[in-house]
Write a structure and sequence with these properties.
Elements (H helix, E strand, L loop, with lengths): L7 E3 L3 E5 L5 H11 L3 H4 L12 H18 L3 E7 L5 E11 L4 E8 L8 H14 L5 E7 L3 H9 L3 E12 L4 E11 H29 L2
Parallel strand pairs: 5-6
Antiparallel strand pairs: 1-2, 2-3, 3-4, 4-5, 6-8, 7-8
Helix pairs in contact: 1-3
Length: 216
């Protein structure tokens, strides 16, 4: 059964907007905002050397993002600051297999949006949305040298499953790329929610006790 992914997801500090249906205006915004960060992004991603014009990005949105959204195998979202609506980056939920209930998350940010916790928040929003619909496993893969990307997985409590040696060719480094594989199961996520709920209830209880003492 296909996932029911909303076109817009709001959280505390960000808004995730579906890159579906694609538009040339959106493609133009992505390229204009991302180009100044290509120097950083091309270390970890292959597309900055391929997507140089809005037309290139639009073709990607039509041939990849649109197709996968309609097939139910992948969902691409724009990450924006909730208050300013400023473009921050993209997050993809992809390689979704409805039979095994497995999937992958990928993400990137423009340089000026790094360090604010946007992607950590985006990952948590996406995983909540899909785990609540029955997805059983999400994985995040990254170059072993990409420490910022790895820290996102760690902050979101993903477990390190292992390392894929020479997983791909890294054009920027001119060598083979080793990749870490981190994952989270629905059962892991449920345990987290129980702990969070228990902590919230505990804090509320403490506040009630303090308030009662103030008026006693």
């Amino acid at each position: 059964m296909p996932l029911k992914m909303p076109k817009k997801i709001k959280s505390e500090r960000i808004i995730l907007e579906a890159a579906y249906p694609p538009s040339f205006a959106l493609a133009t915004e992505i390229v204009e905002k991302a180009k100044p960060s290509y120097g950083t992004l091309r270390q970890w991603l292959p597309w900055p050397d391929k997507i140089k014009r809005p037309e290139d990005e639009y073709n990607y949105l039509v041939n990849w993002a649109k197709r996968h959204w309609e097939e139910g195998s992948g969902y691409t979202y724009i990450v924006r600051d909730k208050n300013t609506k400023a473009f921050a980056g993209l997050i993809d939920f992809f390689k979704y297999d409805d039979k095994s209930k497995t999937s992958e998350i990928g993400y990137w940010l423009i340089d000026e949006a790094v360090g604010h916790g946007y992607i950590t928040e985006a990952v948590r929003v996406i995983e909540k949305t899909v785990f609540e619909q029955g997805v059983n496993r999400i994985q995040i893969r990254m170059d072993t040298r990409n420490k910022r990307s790895e820290m996102v997985a760690i902050r979101c409590n993903y477990q390190l499953d292992g390392t894929i040696r020479a997983a791909d060719w890294a054009e920027y480094f001119q060598d083979y790329r080793d990749e870490y594989v981190y994952s989270k199961l629905k059962s892991d996520w449920k345990k987290e929610q129980h702990i969070v709920s228990r902590n919230v209830k505990g804090k509320m209880k403490v506040k009630r006790i303090i308030k009662q003492r103030e008026y006693s």
